[in-house]
Each structure stands twice: as structure tokens, then as C-alpha cells.
Amino acid sequence: MRILVCVDLSSSTASVVDYATKLARGLSARVCLLHATDSQEEMVGYGGVFGEFPVYIDPKELRHDIAQRFHSEHQQVQELSQQLQNTGIECLGLLVNGTSIVATIIKEAEKLSAEMIIVGSQHKGMWMKLLEGSISKEVLNQSTIPVLVIPTK
Q: Angle, to 10 degrees, between the axis of helix 13-27 and the axis of helix 59-86?
């Protein structure tokens, strides 16, 4: 069995990885830890709160900052992957940048022939759901692969 485990590298990651580890061990499953990013969000909207205050961001500086963040996040994913490997679980760590986090998760699950997707849910309040949406809910709605949602609070 192959399980795709989505990690956002927030404080909830430990809960998701712990649960996935127990499940993978029980099912003798292989795990892929996926951290999906969308750097386009960082490149859009640098015009102030709602575009009313133009702010100039040097493109080279922005690319450098994004590259540094990707490097740091990639290291974190690799460390998590190594922790699972140290417990005897076959694990691959991936950082993938796409145009949509949900679409990236679905695409990677299909590419890896995953038989289950695990995501965490932080139970955001109503206003945060309206502003940010819910990645776990959208994965549930769009996936043809079974999705296990782990409550992290």
C-alpha cells in the first residue's frame, strides 16, 4: 500500500506524521511525505493590503527569499522522511511547487499511485475558512482516492 501524507510544516505536522507512522506500520505501507507550495501567491498582491499602496519589491530579492524558503522547507521534509525511515518505514519526502496546493496534492497522489491521502485539519474559524478556504475539504471534494483527515486540535 502507498500512502501520501500531506504536511504543511506547521505545528500540526507532528500530529499528522505520528498518526501516519502508526497507520503505515500497521498496514506495512510505503509513505510519501508531500509538502505542496504555491509561490505564485507570494508573487501576486505586492501592492499593499488591497492594492491601494503600491510597494516595490525587487524581483531578485523576492526570488532569493523564495529560494531560501524552499531550501529550508525541503530540509524539513527530508528530516521528517529520515525519521520515518529510521523506524523501518519506506518513506520518500517531496517538496512540490504548483499553481494550486490542492491540485498539486491530487496530481502527486495520482503520479505516485497512492491508495490513500492523509491530510490534517486545523478546524479554522468561520472567518479564516472564508478568507483562506480549507485545503483538507477541497482535497476531500476533488480526490478520487480515499482521504483520511486527521484533526490536529
A: 40
Partners of 2 in beta bridges: 30
Half-sphere exposure of 96 (CA within 13 A, CB side): 23
- pTM of this structure: 0.82
Rg (CA), the chain: 17
Residues in CB range of 53: below 8 A, 6 or more apart? 47
Tell the residue number behind the cell numbers 480549507, with chain if given: 134
Cα–Cα separations (whole angstroms), residue 52 to 42, 49, 57, 59, 113: 17, 7, 15, 20, 45
Read off the pLDDT of residues 87-118 as tens digits, 9 standing for 90 and up.
999 999 999 998 889 999 999 999 999 999 99
